[in-house]
Amino acid sequence: MAGLVPAIHELLTSIARHNVDARHKLGHDSVRFSRSSASLDRQPKGCILEFMSMDAVFKALADPVRRQLLDRLQARNGQTLNELCQGHGMTRQAVTKHLGILEAANLVATQKRGREKLHFLNPVPIQEIADRWIGKYERTRLRALSDLKA
Fold first, then answer.
1. What does pTM read for this prediction?
2. Which residue blocks in 27-115 are alpha helix, DSSP H?
3. CA–CA separation, 149 vs 93, rounded Å?
4. Strand arrangement of the beta sheet that strand 108-113 belongs to
5. What are the b/e assignments for 42-74, b being 16+ CB within 10 Å?
6. Is pLDDT at 55 greater than 60 in this prediction?
7. Contact 49, 124 (CB under 8 A)
8. pLDDT tens digits, residue range 29-47?
9. Hey, what's the torsion of the CAs at 117, 106, 4, 6, to 10 degrees?
């Protein structure tokens, strides 16, 4: 995972730089990281994250359908809405609503390619949850085990 995050950052930054020029020509953003985001180049320190609430990430991860969509994107990134709808007993509108919640939580990034909209997994918010919540409690447990050995 450590090597994956810099690679994703580089990919998304390159996509954003390319699309900043395209946005001026086309008059709209073609890469979105949430419903209200600006392009990557406008974010502080070139970071791919905008201010987001961990509550939105937890809310997005709380639903099993959204977790399944993330699993499918992890298995094969860059899928269209039609590809993500296959195998679900839901309408396109329902899948679109779930994807919107994932986008709002910054767990999914989208890129328009022609008439299609491709969906990409953004694992950074999940890693931040692991660092903030899991890592914090694991360190204490590891220290306790270390003290028992001594």
1. 0.59
2. 54-62, 64-75, 81-85, 92-104
3. 56
4. 31-32, 108-113, 116-121
5. ebeeeebbeebeeebbeebbeeeebeebbebbe
6. yes
7. yes
8. 444 444 444 333 333 333 4
9. 100
